[in-house]
Give the backbone structure.
Amino acid sequence: MQQLKIGFYFLALTLILGSCSTTGGNTPVTKRQAILNMREQVLSDLYKQHPQARTEVASAPGYAVFSNWNIYLFFVSGGSGYGVAKDNRTGKDTYMKMGELGAGLGLGLKDFRAVFIFNKRSVMEQFVNKGWEFGGQADAAAKAGEKGYAVGGEAVVSDITIYQLTESGLALQATVQGTKYWKDSDLNSY
Protein backbone atom coordinates (compact mmCIF):
# COMPACT_ATOMS: atom_id res chain seq x y z
CA MET A 1 0.00 0.00 0.00
CA GLN A 2 2.86 2.37 0.82
CA GLN A 3 4.41 1.78 -2.64
CA LEU A 4 1.12 2.57 -4.31
CA LYS A 5 0.78 5.80 -2.31
CA ILE A 6 4.33 6.83 -3.24
CA GLY A 7 3.55 5.98 -6.86
CA PHE A 8 0.49 8.24 -6.88
CA TYR A 9 2.43 11.13 -5.32
CA PHE A 10 5.28 10.67 -7.78
CA LEU A 11 2.87 10.54 -10.70
CA ALA A 12 1.03 13.66 -9.53
CA LEU A 13 4.30 15.55 -9.15
CA THR A 14 5.45 14.41 -12.58
CA LEU A 15 2.21 15.53 -14.20
CA ILE A 16 2.37 18.90 -12.49
CA LEU A 17 5.96 19.45 -13.56
CA GLY A 18 5.17 18.22 -17.07
CA SER A 19 2.31 20.66 -17.42
CA CYS A 20 4.68 23.48 -16.54
CA SER A 21 7.24 22.52 -19.17
CA THR A 22 7.68 24.74 -22.17
CA THR A 23 7.99 23.82 -25.78
CA GLY A 24 11.14 25.79 -26.39
CA GLY A 25 10.45 29.42 -25.66
CA ASN A 26 8.96 32.01 -23.38
CA THR A 27 6.59 33.72 -25.79
CA PRO A 28 3.79 32.30 -27.94
CA VAL A 29 5.82 33.16 -31.06
CA THR A 30 8.90 31.22 -29.93
CA LYS A 31 6.78 28.31 -28.65
CA ARG A 32 4.95 28.06 -31.99
CA GLN A 33 8.28 28.09 -33.84
CA ALA A 34 9.67 25.35 -31.58
CA ILE A 35 6.60 23.21 -32.32
CA LEU A 36 6.96 23.78 -36.07
CA ASN A 37 10.65 22.81 -35.84
CA MET A 38 9.69 19.66 -33.92
CA ARG A 39 7.12 18.82 -36.62
CA GLU A 40 9.69 19.14 -39.41
CA GLN A 41 12.18 16.94 -37.55
CA VAL A 42 9.57 14.27 -36.76
CA LEU A 43 8.32 14.19 -40.36
CA SER A 44 11.90 13.88 -41.60
CA ASP A 45 12.52 10.97 -39.23
CA LEU A 46 9.22 9.34 -40.22
CA TYR A 47 9.98 9.58 -43.94
CA LYS A 48 13.37 7.92 -43.39
CA GLN A 49 11.75 4.98 -41.59
CA HIS A 50 8.53 4.79 -43.62
CA PRO A 51 9.03 6.44 -47.05
CA GLN A 52 5.41 5.77 -48.06
CA ALA A 53 4.28 8.08 -45.24
CA ARG A 54 5.35 11.12 -47.31
CA THR A 55 2.63 10.34 -49.87
CA GLU A 56 0.11 9.53 -47.12
CA VAL A 57 0.73 12.90 -45.44
CA ALA A 58 0.63 14.87 -48.71
CA SER A 59 -2.58 13.27 -49.98
CA ALA A 60 -4.50 13.34 -46.68
CA PRO A 61 -6.98 16.07 -45.72
CA GLY A 62 -4.59 16.86 -42.88
CA TYR A 63 -2.23 15.53 -40.25
CA ALA A 64 -0.98 16.25 -36.74
CA VAL A 65 2.41 15.77 -35.11
CA PHE A 66 2.84 15.46 -31.33
CA SER A 67 5.75 15.26 -28.93
CA ASN A 68 4.77 13.20 -25.88
CA TRP A 69 6.28 11.81 -22.73
CA ASN A 70 4.84 9.17 -20.44
CA ILE A 71 5.74 7.79 -17.05
CA TYR A 72 4.65 4.35 -15.92
CA LEU A 73 4.98 3.62 -12.23
CA PHE A 74 3.59 0.30 -11.03
CA PHE A 75 -0.19 0.65 -11.27
CA VAL A 76 -0.52 4.23 -12.57
CA SER A 77 0.65 6.08 -15.63
CA GLY A 78 0.47 9.59 -16.96
CA GLY A 79 1.91 11.90 -19.52
CA SER A 80 1.60 15.11 -21.43
CA GLY A 81 2.61 16.61 -24.71
CA TYR A 82 2.10 19.23 -27.36
CA GLY A 83 1.79 19.36 -31.10
CA VAL A 84 0.27 20.91 -34.17
CA ALA A 85 -2.42 19.83 -36.62
CA LYS A 86 -2.16 20.95 -40.25
CA ASP A 87 -5.10 21.31 -42.62
CA ASN A 88 -3.62 20.44 -46.02
CA ARG A 89 -6.39 22.23 -47.94
CA THR A 90 -6.16 25.60 -46.14
CA GLY A 91 -2.59 25.37 -44.86
CA LYS A 92 -3.79 26.38 -41.38
CA ASP A 93 -1.89 25.14 -38.33
CA THR A 94 -3.75 24.50 -35.08
CA TYR A 95 -1.56 24.15 -31.98
CA MET A 96 -2.70 21.50 -29.53
CA LYS A 97 -1.97 19.89 -26.17
CA MET A 98 -2.45 16.37 -24.95
CA GLY A 99 -2.63 14.61 -21.61
CA GLU A 100 -2.80 11.00 -20.47
CA LEU A 101 -3.78 9.20 -17.33
CA GLY A 102 -4.08 5.46 -16.92
CA ALA A 103 -4.06 2.38 -14.79
CA GLY A 104 -2.40 -0.94 -15.37
CA LEU A 105 0.93 -2.60 -14.94
CA GLY A 106 3.91 -0.58 -16.05
CA LEU A 107 7.32 0.73 -15.14
CA GLY A 108 9.43 3.28 -16.92
CA LEU A 109 9.59 6.55 -18.80
CA LYS A 110 9.03 7.01 -22.51
CA ASP A 111 9.58 10.03 -24.77
CA PHE A 112 8.00 9.58 -28.17
CA ARG A 113 6.62 11.36 -31.19
CA ALA A 114 3.33 10.59 -32.91
CA VAL A 115 2.10 11.47 -36.39
CA PHE A 116 -1.66 11.31 -37.00
CA ILE A 117 -2.71 11.19 -40.65
CA PHE A 118 -6.41 11.95 -41.06
CA ASN A 119 -7.93 9.82 -43.81
CA LYS A 120 -11.21 11.78 -43.81
CA ARG A 121 -11.76 15.52 -43.54
CA SER A 122 -14.62 15.08 -41.04
CA VAL A 123 -12.35 13.07 -38.75
CA MET A 124 -9.67 15.77 -38.90
CA GLU A 125 -12.20 18.49 -38.13
CA GLN A 126 -13.57 16.48 -35.20
CA PHE A 127 -10.05 15.97 -33.84
CA VAL A 128 -9.09 19.65 -34.13
CA ASN A 129 -12.36 21.28 -33.10
CA LYS A 130 -13.68 18.92 -30.44
CA GLY A 131 -10.59 17.04 -29.35
CA TRP A 132 -10.16 13.33 -29.30
CA GLU A 133 -9.95 10.67 -26.64
CA PHE A 134 -8.34 7.30 -26.99
CA GLY A 135 -7.75 4.41 -24.60
CA GLY A 136 -5.93 1.11 -24.39
CA GLN A 137 -2.25 0.57 -24.98
CA ALA A 138 0.29 -2.21 -24.76
CA ASP A 139 3.84 -1.81 -25.94
CA ALA A 140 7.47 -2.13 -25.03
CA ALA A 141 10.26 0.32 -25.64
CA ALA A 142 13.90 0.31 -24.70
CA LYS A 143 15.88 3.03 -26.42
CA ALA A 144 18.39 5.66 -25.47
CA GLY A 145 19.95 7.86 -28.12
CA GLU A 146 20.96 5.73 -31.09
CA LYS A 147 20.89 2.48 -29.13
CA GLY A 148 18.00 0.32 -28.18
CA TYR A 149 14.82 -1.11 -29.54
CA ALA A 150 11.32 0.24 -29.83
CA VAL A 151 8.06 -1.42 -30.67
CA GLY A 152 5.64 1.01 -32.18
CA GLY A 153 5.08 1.67 -35.82
CA GLU A 154 1.76 2.15 -37.52
CA ALA A 155 -1.84 1.71 -36.47
CA VAL A 156 -5.14 2.72 -38.02
CA VAL A 157 -7.89 3.85 -35.63
CA SER A 158 -11.15 5.57 -36.63
CA ASP A 159 -9.87 6.69 -40.05
CA ILE A 160 -6.64 8.00 -38.53
CA THR A 161 -3.32 6.40 -39.42
CA ILE A 162 -0.96 6.78 -36.46
CA TYR A 163 2.81 6.44 -36.60
CA GLN A 164 4.74 6.39 -33.34
CA LEU A 165 8.47 7.03 -33.15
CA THR A 166 10.21 6.45 -29.83
CA GLU A 167 12.73 9.20 -29.12
CA SER A 168 14.22 7.79 -25.94
CA GLY A 169 13.11 5.96 -22.90
CA LEU A 170 12.76 2.65 -21.19
CA ALA A 171 9.27 1.34 -20.61
CA LEU A 172 7.40 -1.89 -20.30
CA GLN A 173 3.67 -1.45 -19.98
CA ALA A 174 0.21 -2.90 -20.36
CA THR A 175 -2.14 -0.11 -19.40
CA VAL A 176 -5.61 1.13 -20.07
CA GLN A 177 -4.90 4.74 -20.68
CA GLY A 178 -7.11 7.67 -21.51
CA THR A 179 -5.52 10.20 -23.83
CA LYS A 180 -7.15 13.55 -24.51
CA TYR A 181 -6.18 16.05 -27.21
CA TRP A 182 -7.37 19.68 -27.26
CA LYS A 183 -6.57 23.09 -28.75
CA ASP A 184 -3.91 25.17 -27.03
CA SER A 185 -5.78 28.43 -26.43
CA ASP A 186 -2.58 30.36 -25.67
CA LEU A 187 -0.84 29.46 -28.93
CA ASN A 188 -3.89 29.76 -31.21
CA SER A 189 -4.76 33.30 -30.16
CA TYR A 190 -2.84 35.33 -32.70
Summary: Strands lie at 62-87, 93-118, 132-144, 147-150, 153-157, 160-183. Helices lie at 2-20, 28-49, 52-59, 121-130.
